[in-house]
Amino acid sequence: MALVWENRDEGIERGAFASFALHAVMLALLLLLLPRPEPPAPLPDDGITVDIVPEVAKPSAIAQRVATPAPTTAKPDASASVQEIAPPHQEKAPTAARSPEVASVPPVPPKPGVFVQAGQLFSDTVLSDPRGRRAREALRGLAGSERNLQLCDLEALEQVRRAAQPAMAPDALAPYAMAAEKVSGNSVEVKGGAFRSKRKWYNIQFKCQLDAGSGKVASFAFLIGDAIPQSEWQAHDLVADDGAADQ
């Protein structure tokens, strides 16, 4: 029985070896029978040439910067004058400095409590005008201190009319309204006077000096005070109007 199994195993091994050898022979035959791939045909030479351009022929960024220098690299000459490098509009002096409007300065209002010295006198001009006929006739009938007082009153009205700020339109003056005036020779001093403008009364003080030879006003200084309350008018004989003189 054991001999039979040994013979059987040997037969299987031989059959497997024979089968392997057969498959190897068949694979070799297949490889020999397959067509061999032909090498690719060489490409025809069309005579195309390739020129190698050297790199130096290509414009580089560095070469461009050297060929075209930037404006900032140019420095102004140290010996150049200020006028050569300054913009044109800075070479001209400002026109505002030469403008007469800038040079003109508005008049400075007088300080409170400070007398204003008149730079120009007007009483003689008023008396010389044909419209001052009534004033000339009134002065002819006066003499001495009374004439001097009336002439200084006329000067006071004209100074207020022309120099007061804000503008006023005085039409009457009472030199003794609040206190008695002082007349001494050719000098007149009023400390408690009052003048009327636009139906209101205002305090005024003035100092008037007359020329002894001509009898004309030689110098004048004045100080305009506050408005007089209407409740005080009656006590000082002050009225809002006096008929035709106020129209």
Q: What are the main properties of this structure?
A:
alpha+beta, 247 residues, 8 helices
Structure, described:
Helices cover 34% and strands 17% of the residues. A hairpin with a 2-residue loop joins strand 4 and strand 5. The radius of gyration is 63 Å and the shape is rod-shaped.
Helices and strands, with pairings:
Layout: H1 2-33, H2 61-67, H3 82-85, H4 88-91, H5 100-103, E1 116-117, H6 123-128, H7 133-140, H8 144-163, E2 170-174, E3 182-184, E4 187-197, E5 200-210, E6 217-227
Antiparallel strand pairs: 1-6, 2-4, 3-4, 4-5, 5-6
Mean pLDDT: 73
Described by the principal axes of the CA atoms, the overall outline is rod-shaped
Give the CA-CA distance, first to last residue: 175 Å
Largest sheet: 6 strands, antiparallel
- The radius of gyration computed from the alpha-carbon positions, rounded to a whole number of angstroms, is 63 Å
> So how many helices?
8
Please state roughly what percent of the residues sit in beta strands, choosing from under 5%, 5-15%, 15-25%, 25-35%, 35-45% or over 45%: 15-25%
H/E series: HHHHHEHHHEEEEE
Secondary structure tally: strands? 6
- Look at the helices and sheets and give the structural class: alpha+beta
Unreliably modeled segments: 44-74, 78-88, 92-108
Percent helix: 25-40%
Summarize the structure.
The chain is α+β, with helices and mostly antiparallel strands and 247 residues long. It has eight helices and six strands.
